[in-house]
Design a protein that fits this description.
- The protein is α+β, with helices and mostly antiparallel strands and about 70 residues long.
- The chain has two helices and two strands; from the N terminus they run βαβα.
- The longest helix is centred in the middle third of the chain and has 13 residues.
Length: about 70
């Protein structure tokens, strides 16, 4: 699995290039998102989930609510 994380400060905003890259990673089957400080606990849940389900299909983690667009 490929995991791309763009870390931002609480008031930070991703650039158009960063958003494009996130989309490309997702289209290729990876997981990518912008991570804000308020979402760090969700990020830790994601890491634990990936570790627990090694070698599985991660493409539906968004739909399962493990992660979402705001993480």
């Amino acid at each position: 699995i490929f995991l791309g994380i763009e870390v931002k400060a609480a008031t930070g905003k991703p650039s158009e290039l960063q958003l494009y890259t996130i989309n490309e990673i997702r289209q290729a089957g990876g997981i990518a998102f912008v991570l804000y400080p308020k979402d760090f606990e969700k990020f830790k849940t994601l890491v634990r989930t990936i570790k627990r389900y090694q070698n599985k299909d991660y493409s539906n983690l968004w739909e399962l609510g493990v992660i979402n667009e705001t993480i």
